[in-house]
Fold this protein.
Amino acid sequence: MIIGCGGAGKSTLAKALHDITGLPLIHLDQLYWKPNWQETEKTAWETIVTEVATKPKWIIDGNYGGTMDIRLQEADTIIFLNRSTFRCLYRAMKRIIIHYGKTRPDMHPGCPEHFEWEFIHYILRYNLTRRPAILKKLEQLKGAKEVLIFRNDREVEAYLEALKVW
């Protein structure tokens, strides 16, 4: 299970892990969004997440706090990309520019990349409003689950390299 702020690199890491391990890859954004950025209804969303999280093996990337506990319960490994606000904002803006008007591979068809102030605001506030609760929750899971917290690209690269050798 991979979580972190928008622009932290969740989908990129998920794809790299999939390439190394061959585990099924699930991008929550592909499941949540419908064409033209229409949201999935809450009850249906919880059902979808429960269905994918109770499969025997997977890599799931995405936050979606309302269903995080479902995934935390089923995951054996949780990776939190604990990145700086600046790094996340930079990567999100870069992604918007590169993919503007096109649908990214990790998104649902019919959801072209676009600029949205609400998303930028979410990134700017994430480390203040969401990160503390996530870190607290992850601290409580240590020992019961493998919890990995990566702060930079070097740590992610070292982890991926170790997996390749394993």
Summary: The first strand starts at residue 2 and ends at 4. The mean pLDDT is 96. The CA atoms of residues 39 and 136 lie 28 Å apart. Residues 2-165 form a domain with the Rossmann fold fold (CATH 3.40.50.300).
